[in-house]
Amino acid sequence: DPQGLSEHQVIDMKTRNYVYPYRINPFNRTSGGLWYIDGSKTLKSTGNFPSIGERRGVIFIGQSLVEGLQVFRHRFNNHANRQKADRGITMFLVGEMNKGAFRSTNPADAFFVDASDALNPVMNEFAGIMTIRIGLATNKPTDWIVLLITQDTRALEESLAA
Fold first, then answer.
1. What average pLDDT does the segment 14-18 reach?
2. DSSP letter for each residue of 30-95
3. CA-CA distance, 100 to 74, in Å (whole number)?
4. How confident is the model over 40-67, as pLDDT tens digits?
5. Which of 3, 11, 97, 127 is 20 to 30 A removed from 112 (C-alpha atoms)?
6. Cα separation of 55 and 138, whole Å?
């Protein structure tokens, strides 16, 4: 058993439903006896990416972009190079979108990339800073499953309609 918790405390649905809204992912056990963490929350409820899956995906994208954009270091910080960076980022994000990383399969709805001159005034150019703003429409995890079970009355409705 997890340290300090008895099995009945961990698996009790009432206890799990109590702690989960406080962003605590409770332990659970499969019918086969394997323990797992039951939840997708991070302790930080504020911010753009409050679930574990979103956060991991964004970290991957960020690290990949940092590595891929190294080619622009020590090059001229001008409009042409910012547009090349924008296109490279867009191509990478389209690839991630095609893998299902975002809520949409339409690039205009899945993400945006802004490497505009407005974000990069002359002062930034002289300071050697290239600023690129990226917005991601990440997928959201399923936290709760609600089952609505009703009587199937289609046959009755068909007979009444005839």
1. 76
2. -TTS-EEE---B-S--SSS--BHHHHHHHHHHHHHHHHHGGGGTTS--SHHHHHHHHHHHHHHHHH
3. 34
4. 877 777 778 888 888 899 999 999 999 9
5. 127
6. 9
pTM assigned to the model: 0.73
Q: What is the pLDDT of residue 1?
A: 44
- Report residue 13's pLDDT band, with 50, 70 and 90 as the boundaries: confident
Contact 113, 101 (CB under 8 A): no
Q: What are phi and psi of 6, to 5 degrees?
A: -90, 155
Tokens of 7: 């099995």
To 10 degrees, what angle do helices 52-68 and 79-98 make?
Answer: 140
List the helix and strand counts (H, then E) for the chain.
7, 4
